[in-house]
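Exercise 7. Given the encoded structure of a 366-residue chain, write a plausible sequence.
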């Protein structure tokens, strides 16, 4: 029986690459993982399939830069304590357009600490994000919600295995470049390929030429599938080919990838968001870093970032190193905070306009 824990030496070599190092669309992603990790491709495929079956890997999929395909936002929800678990369950189980669903708390009562439920939401462009959130608020009994679209992206990756050994203050040589959020429109043919491209892999699909079956499902030749996928890649719609670890719950063997996830908040002067985001986002510990406008409820926070780890104090040390760095280059911070993640569930957000129409019609009946 093959080892399935993330900390097995061979698995760790594979995961250090496969979590977030395969950029864009690749015709032979498992060959690419093998090449970059130094592990034979047959071993790579067998190990990834085994970890997926065991639940160590939560999903294997081609990610998309969905912010360009759908209107997306981080949403903070103020929900009465006696309704919060029900609200969590409803958003995770019954809203395919909510992705991350997380309960968060702060160490002390502070700005926005009564917003305990946090979700990511994506709605296809022709529909209203605000209207969608209002429907969710009505369904779950939320008192208030704050919608925070991304205005720019400075860091977006996972790489939990790789980040275990990163020292506080470790950062890239140059500031992170901001990826702007921009609307991209697709035709029916492109949507058909895209929806086949993004579907999660089952273990039996982890094999050479993994896209052949997807091309058949999309009713196109393999060469046409490649052509459209590579065109979508050139248009900055395709993200990474990734293996996502189950990083919240313990594995079947009781091993955890991470224990803590921290949402860092900073309020920097208006007009300096791109500079501050670039300096914060260059730090290697961060899996996500965005420019978002949180508003007065959160003391006008405008840069947010996420870090994961197994040691809470070490995460605070990482944040302290980031704080020292931005102070040292003269970027003032009027307010900062940490929201710690508790219960959480993660699923890919649906982005299909047709699926949205059907879902909305169903909600209107109930």
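Solution.
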């Amino acid at each position: 029986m093959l080892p399935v824990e993330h900390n097995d030496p061979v698995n760790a070599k594979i995961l250090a690459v496969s979590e977030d190092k395969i950029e864009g669309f690749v015709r032979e992603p498992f060959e690419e993982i093998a090449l970059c990790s130094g592990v034979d491709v047959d071993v790579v495929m067998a190990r990834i399939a085994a970890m997926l079956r065991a639940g160590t890997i939560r999903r294997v999929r081609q990610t998309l830069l969905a912010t360009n395909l759908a209107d997306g936002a981080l949403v903070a929800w103020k929900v009465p304590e006696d309704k919060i678990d029900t609200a969590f369950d409803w958003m995770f189980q019954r809203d395919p357009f909510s992705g991350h669903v997380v309960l968060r708390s702060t160490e002390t009562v502070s700005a926005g600490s009564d917003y305990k439920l946090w979700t990511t939401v994506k709605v296809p462009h022709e529909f209203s994000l605000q209207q969608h959130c209002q429907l969710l608020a009505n369904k779950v009994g939320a008192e208030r919600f704050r919608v925070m679209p991304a205005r720019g992206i400075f860091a977006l990756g996972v790489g939990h295995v790789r980040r275990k050994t990163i020292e506080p203050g470790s950062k890239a040589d140059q500031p992170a470049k901001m990826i702007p959020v921009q609307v991209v429109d697709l035709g029916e043919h492109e949507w058909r390929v895209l929806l086949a491209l993004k579907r999660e892999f089952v273990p039996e699909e982890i094999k050479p030429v993994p896209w052949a079956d997807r091309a058949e499902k999309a009713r196109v030749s393999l060469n046409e599938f490649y052509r459209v996928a590579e065109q979508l890649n050139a248009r900055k719609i395709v993200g990474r080919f990734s293996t996502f670890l189950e990083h919240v719950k313990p594995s079947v063997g009781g091993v955890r990838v991470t224990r803590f996830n921290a949402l860092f908040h900073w309020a920097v002067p208006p007009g300096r968001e791109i500079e501050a985001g670039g300096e914060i986002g260059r730090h290697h510990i961060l899996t996500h870093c965005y420019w978002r406008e949180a508003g007065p409820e959160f003391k006008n926070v405008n840069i947010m970032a996420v870090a994961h780890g197994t040691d809470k104090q070490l995460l605070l040390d990482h944040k302290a190193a980031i704080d020292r760095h931005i102070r040292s280059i003269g970027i003032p911070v009027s307010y900062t905070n940490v929201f710690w993640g508790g219960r959480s569930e993660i699923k890919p957000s649906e982005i299909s306009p047709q699926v949205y129409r059907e879902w909305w019609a169903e909600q209107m009946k109930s």
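Remark. The chain is about 35% helix and 25% strand. Students should compare their own answers with the one above.
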